[in-house]
Amino acid sequence: MKHTATPAGRPTARCIWNSFRASGKRHLILTGTRGSGKSTLLAGLLPYLRETGPVSGITTRAQPGEAVFLTDAGSGRCAQIGAFDPRLPGPENRMQPCLQGFLALGVPLLQQYGKSDGTWVFIDEIGYLETACPEYCRAILDLMKRRRLAAAVRKQDLPFLQALCRRADAFVVDLDAPYGRAGCVIMASGLGRRFGGDKLMAAFAGRPLIQYALDATAGVFAGRVAVTRSKAVAELCERQDVPVVFHDQPHRSDTVRLGLRALLAQAGECGLTGCLFCPADQPLLQRQTVAALALCAAQDPEAIWRPAYGAQQGAPVFFPAWAFPELLALPQGRGGGAVVRKYPQRVRCLPVQEAQELADVDTRAGLAALEKAKKEDF
């Protein structure tokens, strides 16, 4: 199907792949309305699939106002599966299914893929034409018993498409709302005693340290808020349209409570599905990691998600909505880690490739060391 440009805020193929691997699911489904970028992202995922071995697959190609064709990506064999019918109501779904194309090529291909070498098979895409052929739908389900499936699935009110997207063994990315309605608290209220000054406004590779947290969390969340004691930090955030809670209360629990309250008030009746608490002093934290945490949380709304390098767990930490009452009622001086320790069985980790992503800045020497690491490795 037609490839589209990637708008800001949409997860990248790498982000989706990292999230999928952390999820433990078997299949990977990209869904969304027409023009949401399913085909573009599926194409971007193919190099990752091929790292596991040979990959077979089906693509569909539309000739607007004429026909739709199904093609074997390996051999180039194709068959017509849809014919334009001007009598059908528009603007979408004006193709009449050509069942013979599915029966003559589509079904045999899927059966062949199930017997061939390789772990993965891809289908781009599965939509209303495909649902018109029961034999093709059964062949897809049979294939999923034998191979892992990566598929672009059109978001439509059709039972087969909805059943695919509800499968417990499928990691489903809804490209119309990939991260759900999650919020983010940027925790920028440290006193900076060990640093000896306003740490978050210190220059790191020529930019204020906090700017890296603002960049890493941009374009992912339904709402963000920065909690800070620093007037300079507040002004920087406000210039970038990030709301600020300015406070002088003494405890870490105050930062959590004030930030979460502000986000919930901002969300109103729509509410939030979860919240990421992001320290503002981890300059090597990657946006890919933040987006992957949000994707994982959208898939598993009962889990607390955090990044990890090997056995070393770190921040930021994503809490689902069920944890909000406890976060709002934290004892004085306790942070969100108290909730993490209370529910260890609910904690899941997203692996990161570099330990420096989890490193924070406490001292000027630490700032210099991370700046050197950025120049060498990032």
Plain-language structure description:
The protein is built from 13 helices and 18 strands. It is α/β, with parallel strands linked by helices and 378 residues long. The protein folds into two domains: 13-174, 3-Layer(aba) Sandwich (Rossmann fold), CATH 3.40.50; 182-377, Spore Coat Polysaccharide Biosynthesis Protein SpsA, Chain A (Alpha-Beta Complex). Strands 5-4-3-2-6-7-1-8 form an eight-stranded mixed beta sheet, sandwiched between helices. Strands 13-12-9-14-17 form a five-stranded mixed beta sheet, with helices on both faces. Helix 1 crosses helix 2 and helix 1 packs across helix 10. The longest helix is centred in the first third of the chain and has 17 residues, at 99-115.
Task: Supply the key terms.
single chain; 378 residues; alpha/beta; Rossmann fold; Spore Coat Polysaccharide Biosynthesis Protein SpsA, Chain A; eight-stranded mixed beta sheet; 18 strands; 25% strand; elongated; disordered N terminus; nucleotidyltransferase activity; Nuc-triphosphatase_THEP1; ribonucleoside triphosphate phosphatase activity; transferase
Structure, briefly:
The protein has 378 residues and is of the alpha/beta class.
How many domain regions? 2
- From the N-terminal CA to the C-terminal CA, the straight-line distance is 35 Å
Structure summary, number of beta strands? 18
Which CATH architecture of the largest domain is right?
Alpha-Beta Complex
Average predicted local confidence, pLDDT:
92
What CATH calls the topology of the largest domain is Spore Coat Polysaccharide Biosynthesis Protein SpsA, Chain A
What does the overall shape look like?
elongated
What's the name of the CATH homologous superfamily of the largest domain?
Answer: Spore Coat Polysaccharide Biosynthesis Protein SpsA, Chain A
Main beta-sheet strand count, sense and barrel state: 8 strands, mixed
Share in helix = 25-40%
CA gyration radius, whole angstroms: 24 Å
Protein name: NTP transferase domain-containing protein
Domain MobA-like NTP transferase: 184-345
Pfam family, one: NTP_transf_3
Organism: Candidatus Gemmiger avistercoris
